[in-house]
Amino acid sequence: MDMIRRTVLKGAGATGMLAGLLAAGVLKPTMAYANDWNKTAFEAKDLDEATKSLGAASAGDNKDLMMKAPEIAENGAVVPVDVTSNIPNTTSISILVKMNPFPLSAHFEFANGALADASVRLKVSQTSIIRAVAKADGKFYSTQKEVKVTVGGCGG
Amino acid sequence: MADPMKIRAQMKGDVAEIRVLMSHAMETGQRKDNDGKTVPAHFIQTMSIALNGKTVVSGQLGTSVSRNPVFGFKVKGAKAGDKVTVSWVDNKGDKRTDEAAVA
User: Fold this and answer.
1) What's the fold here for domain B6-101?
2) Residues B14, B77 contacting (CB under 8 angstroms)
3) How big is the A-B interface in CB pairs under 8 Å?
4) Could you read off the pLDDT tens digit of each residue along chain B, which spans 103 residues?
5) Which of A4, A140, B36, B44 lies most in the core, judged by the most C-beta atoms within 10 Å?
6) Do A100 and B76 touch (CB under 8 A)?
7) Into which CATH architecture does domain A39-149 fall?
């Protein structure tokens, strides 16, 4: 099976058929194909700038967007944050740490049965507000919570 | 190539709870080493999780994610034996893909 695939690939590359084969689904892009990385949002140095770069400048509250994070983080290098959105048709969740050099920490998109639920572990450099933003039906919602940090998380 | 990921996927009712532990330094680019030189940023930028070949979660990460990242996700409608594939690509173009079956 592999030999046939290799021969086809060799031939296809030479004749420029690769694009056609990809489109036909014969060649599947490898799982490690990088998604786009939102450079503007990830390089924003300010919480509100980063939130704006996500398109969420006018995000409103919603009681169905919940975030769990410790009141006091014993180790700022590993702060567990869990975000759950029970807002119907939530397609993405983003998590931002206000006092970090680059507040946007993670952005997840959900499809094909994935629940809008994400658990992450973040570095939090100092006591900071952590903000979660959810997008549902094209609208944005946010919630935030302060995490106190005794030992800073950026190794500095 | 980086160390393998640890992937655990367990059914709880009709939801598969997926836990992934990745092996990566996640350097912020802000840290100085013992010689006082700044350690360049080296971190996972994108990741994806597929169930039986269909993408269920795609993620973009920044340098605030902890070293050796741990993530948790939930997927409805999965069943025992389904294949979970996790992939990541970092800012230097290194990549890793691992898979596990839902228990």
Assistant:
1) Immunoglobulin-like (2.60.40)
2) yes
3) 135
4) 578 999 999 999 999 999 999 999 999 998 999 999 999 999 999 999 999 999 999 999 999 999 999 999 999 999 999 999 999 999 999 999 999 999 9
5) B44
6) no
7) Sandwich (2.60)
